[in-house]
Write a structure and sequence with these properties.
The protein is mostly helical. The protein has one domain. It is flat and about 30 Å long. The mean pLDDT is 87.
Length: 42
């Protein structure tokens, strides 16, 4: 279980760094979250 949380933390940090430093990634991340949240809301 600890490895799962470490993996989630690493993925979160990588996502934040990608959004900050790679142009165009923020739109992709936003669309992905919108799709996921849209399904969860139904």
């Amino acid at each position: 279980m600890k490895k799962f949380y470490v993996g989630v933390a690493i993925a979160l940090v990588l996502t934040i760094l990608a959004v900050l430093f790679v142009p165009g990634v923020d739109d992709f991340v936003e669309q992905t979250f919108q799709r996921y949240l849209g399904r969860a809301a139904r």
